[in-house]
Structure formats: C-alpha cells, structure tokens
TrEMBL record:
Keyword Repeat listed: yes
Keyword Membrane applies: yes
Annotated keywords: Membrane, Repeat, Transmembrane, Transmembrane helix, WD repeat
Source organism, top-level taxon: Eukaryota
GO MF annotation, one: protein phosphatase regulator activity
Organism: Sander lucioperca (Pike-perch)
Quaternary structure and partners: PP2A consists of a common heterodimeric core enzyme, composed of a 36 kDa catalytic subunit (subunit C) and a 65 kDa constant regulatory subunit (PR65 or subunit A), that associates with a variety of regulatory subunits.
Classification via InterPro entries: PP2A_PR55, PP2A_PR55_CS, WD40/YVTN_repeat-like_dom_sf, WD40_repeat_dom_sf, WD40_rpt
Family named by the database record: Belongs to the phosphatase 2A regulatory subunit B family.
Protein name: Serine/threonine-protein phosphatase 2A 55 kDa regulatory subunit B
Transmembrane segments: 31-49
Cellular component per GO, a single term: protein phosphatase type 2A complex
Length: 498
C-alpha cells in the first residue's frame, strides 16, 4: 500500500489556494483539504502499514523507504535541505514553493512511526517576475534553501531564486486570545452601549497553526543567477554567489551587501570561467570556498583582504593530456562543493566523478570516485541532449565516512570512504515499496558482460535524474529528489532497534 499526497495550487484574485489530496491505495479513501492563503497545516499523519522485510542483508547502507510523496507533474523539486538537527526537511520547487516536513516524535502506539516525516507547512516563497529593463523573465524556481540555527521558538530559513534571497520565519501558534471587551470573536467591533462590564481576555487553546512570514528580502544585488547561499558559522552573516560574484550579507541588513569576490573581466569577451558553487567553512567564519566551471576550487580567507579575488589556496587536478577531448572542460566543471562536517575535507562533484580533497593538499584530490564511468563513451549524445550540463549535487553523511551523489535513471550512488565499497540504488515507485529494502542496482557498460538484473547503458532513462540529495546531519536518513518525487530513506538497522 502506498499513500500519495497531491499538492495542487491555483491563484484567484491574488489569493493562493492549495488543495491536498491524499490517496491511500489500500482502502482508497480520499481526503481533500482545501485551505486558502499561504499557510497550511497538515494534521493527517502519513502512516504506512508496516511490513519490514526479514531479509538478512548486508548492513552497509541498506535502506528502506520511509515516506513516499508524489506531487503533481509540474512541481519539480529543485532543492532539499535538512535543518541542523534533522527534524525538519525543507524542499523547494520550480513553482517557487517551499514545503517543510517535520519528523514525528516516537509514539508508543505506533512503534515504527519514528523517523516518518509529515508535511508541516507549505508556502509560496517566490513569484515569477519580469525585469522590464532587460526584458527578462525571472523564474520563481527555488535554487537553494538554507536553515538558520534555532535561537528562539521560531525557525528561520533563507530561500533564493535566481535574483532575490528571502528570510522566512516559521512559527507555531496553538493558543488564541478570547474575551476581548470591545470586539467579538469574529473581530467585529461591539456596540459600546452593550459593554456593561470589563473582562480580562484569556488565551484559549486552539488547533496548532504553523505561520510562515517573510522577514527580510535581500534584492537587487545580483546581476547574474544566484547558484549558492551559505550561512556563516558566526550566524550573523551569509553569502550569496552568482556566476561572477559573491556577496556577503548581514542577516539584518537588506539594503546593502559587500562584494567579496568579483571575477567579471573588464571585457566580457575574455570570460573563460564562471563560479558554480560556494560555501562557508563550518567552523572558521573567515574561510569560504568557491568552485568554478574549469574544475578548480579556491579557498579564500576574508582576513587577508576585503576583496577575496586572490585566493589563499587553489585546488586543481593537473589535466591528463592523453585524455583530452572536446568535452574535457565541460565534464570537469564542478557542479557542487561541500565542506565535510569536520571542516578538514571538501567534496566536489563534476559530471562523471565525485572527489574528496584535503584542505592541506592542493595538487590533487585525495580520493576520486567514478559515479557513472560508463557514460564516457556517450558524451556526444549527452552533449546533444544537453544532459552534459546537468548539475548534480553531493552530500556527506554525518560522520564524513560516506558520500552520496545522484545519477541518471533515478539512480543514486554511495561510496564508503573507509571500506571503498560503493552501491547504486534506485529511487523509483516500482522498485521501492514502503518499508522494503532497496536492492542494489548495476549498470553494465556497453560491451561488458551482462548479469541477471543488470541494466544496459543504452536503456538508461536520461530524463530521470537525481540532482538534489541531502543527508540527515547525524543519522542514516537521506532525502532524494527524483524530479517531482521526494523519497526519504532510512537505514534498516536504525528502525529495527525501535
Ligand atoms: C531543527 O528543527 C527542530 C524541530 O522544529 C528543532 O527542534 C531544532 O531545534 C532545529 N535545529 C536547529 C539546530 O535549528
Ligand atoms: C555514516 O556512514 C557509516 C557507514 O554506513 C555509518 O557507520 C555511520 O553511522 C554514518 N554516520 C552517520 C552520522 O550517519
């Protein structure tokens, strides 16, 4: 049995209406909830009948499906991000919406409900806009979401589209004041003559409501497309990077930012390289890294100069002249860079590989992992269908011992850095039933020997790509965005202990 959640959205007279339809294939009872406005609370838990597989399989990253949510086809997920303790998971989509999931606390009556993420709140973060001066449409697509560490009862997150970054406050309300003297329960002003005695208003419990409100809008600072935002470990500043510049912001100040990197050449014809991703060091607030389309990483220290155009360290792998081809530069472009939790290593993703770099070694990566080397012979057709420009992200697990990144055909890959084992798993409706163990998949290269259940390179579906993934900060729970579906997988070992 599976449970489908359909999110539908339409706009009427400037008011946003959201529909959710739940379909439980088990008893096919549909629930429709209609809310108006931008904030919705989902009270219905998504619970699955629990049928844990009894297969005694290797414990290495054997995961089972914990939640399966399918959204309507236009809602392609464009980013996924856990908060710093992993209890909240935010996704952004092409329609400019943000959906926040919350992990259910363990309950005695439902021993397997621990780890299940239910929809907590949904809101419209960005709207399509039009730049009249440049005659350009500005997409509402959410490029990145970053959580701020919690400081009071409310949660804050930053979301960005190509141009504008917004700070959102997410707070809960479960009480409302009642018993006003001058207005009735609907808020209408009472006739003064009917007020004969004074009463003290009281707070009465009500159904939990999640309110999301925009706190700050950081606009007009980017000429090019924003590809990254990163909150600094001082928790007061953050940076935003576009193709040619990186800006530093104070979280409270929206009308100015400081430009810390500018690689725009005086003459745009001399442009050979663009910034593809940027991130702050997790512990040292003066350090940040940015990656480029030429496959290089630059570590910058903000203590050295106000403008960090001169990097402190340049990480670059020397090119093998024998392997040079028309595609070399395209496939070496770094699509994502992530500091390890320890701050010692950098993880990068380019088209065919994932690499781990040691901050103390600039000359070459410490480890190189082949994500889908079988595509090397297919680069021509991947160039023709534009897939070669896909930007895959990568993620560390909580202890920096395993890395994860996506591939085609709804496959994603994991590499254990210690044992050097790797696995290909599939996030798809057909292959993963709730609470079932994911079967490792294998792609057989063209001309290679084909084993049972192998998939041939020629039958890979290049329209099904896993670009966005996130790993829970301290547990083996991962979130995988497969076009418009979000999958949350959890380590089997974990859940069996409950
Ligand atoms: C993550 O979200 C949970 C649930 O709201 C909250 O309790 C926790 O403090 C958040 N973690 C951080 C570090 O903000
Ligand atoms: C990282 O992965 C390894 C190998 O599966 C596992 O032993 C470890 O618990 C994971 N760390 C976290 C914090 O999830």
């Amino acid at each position: 049995s599976e449970l489908c959640l359909h999110l539908r959205h339409y706009r009427d007279d400037g008011v946003h209406h959201y529909f959710y339809t739940y379909t439980n294939t088990m008893n096919s009872s549909d629930t429709v909830i209609l809310c108006t406005g931008c904030v919705i609370l989902m009270a219905t838990p998504l619970l699955f009948p629990t049928t844990l597989s009894s297969h005694a399989t290797s414990l290495f990253l054997i995961l089972h499906l914990c939640l399966y949510v399918c959204l309507s086809p236009a809602d392609i997920i464009s980013t996924v991000e856990f908060n710093h303790t992993g209890e909240l998971l935010a996704t952004g989509d092409k329609g400019g919406r943000v959906v926040i999931f919350q992990r259910e606390p363990e309950s005695k009556s439902e021993p397997f409900s621990q780890g299940e993420y239910n929809v907590y709140s949904t809101f419209q973060s960005h709207e399509p806009e039009f730049d009249y001066l440049k005659s350009l449409e500005i997409e509402e697509k959410i490029n990145k979401i970053r959580w701020l560490p919690q400081q009071n009862a409310a949660q804050f997150l930053l979301s960005t589209n190509d141009k504008t970054i917004k700070l959102w406050k997410v707070s809960e309300r479960d009480k409302r004041p009642e018993g006003y003297n001058l207005k009735d329960e609907e808020g209408r002003i009472k006739d003064i003559s009917t007020v004969t005695s004074l009463q003290v208003p009281v707070l009465m419990p009500m159904d939990l409501m999640v309110e999301v409100s925009p706190r700050r809008v950081f606009a007009n600072a980017h000429t090019y497309h924003v590809n990254s935002i990163s909150v600094n470990s001082d928790y007061m500043t953050y940076m935003s990077a576009d193709d040619l510049r990186i800006n530093l912001w104070h979280l409270d100040i929206t009308d100015r930012s400081f430009n810390i990197v500018d690689i725009k050449p005086v003459n745009m014809e001399d442009l050979t390289e663009v910034i593809t991703a940027a991130e702050f060091h997790p512990h040292h607030c003066n350090l940040f890294v940015y990656s480029s389309s030429k496959g290089t990483l630059r570590l910058c220290d903000m203590r050295e100069a106000a403008l960090c155009d001169k990097h402190s360290k340049l990480f670059e792998e020397p090119e093998d002249p024998s392997a040079r081809s028309f595609f070399s530069e395209i496939i070496s472009s770094v699509s994502d860079v992530k500091f390890s939790h320890s701050g010692r290593y950098l993880l990068t993703r380019d088209y065919l590989t994932a690499k781990v770099w040691d901050l103390n070694m600039e000359s070459k990566p410490l480890e190189t992992y082949q994500v889908h080397d079988y595509l090397r012979s297919k680069l021509c057709s991947l160039y023709e269908n534009d897939c070669i420009f896909d930007k895959f992200e990568c993620a560390w697990n909580g202890s920096d011992s395993v890395i994860m990144t996506g591939a085609y055909n709804n496959f994603f890959r994991m590499f254990d850095r210690n044992t050097k084992r790797d696995v290909t798993l599939e996030a798809s409706r057909e292959s993963s039933k709730p609470r079932a163990v994911l079967k490792p998949r294998r792609v057989c290269a063209a001309g290679g020997k084909r084993r049972k259940d192998d998939i041939s390179v020629d039958s890979l579906d290049f329209t099904k790509k896993i670009l966005h993934t996130a790993w829970h900060p301290n547990e083996n729970i991962i979130a995988i965005a497969a076009t418009n579906n979000l999958y949350i997988f959890q380590d089997k070992l974990n859940s069996e202990m409950h």
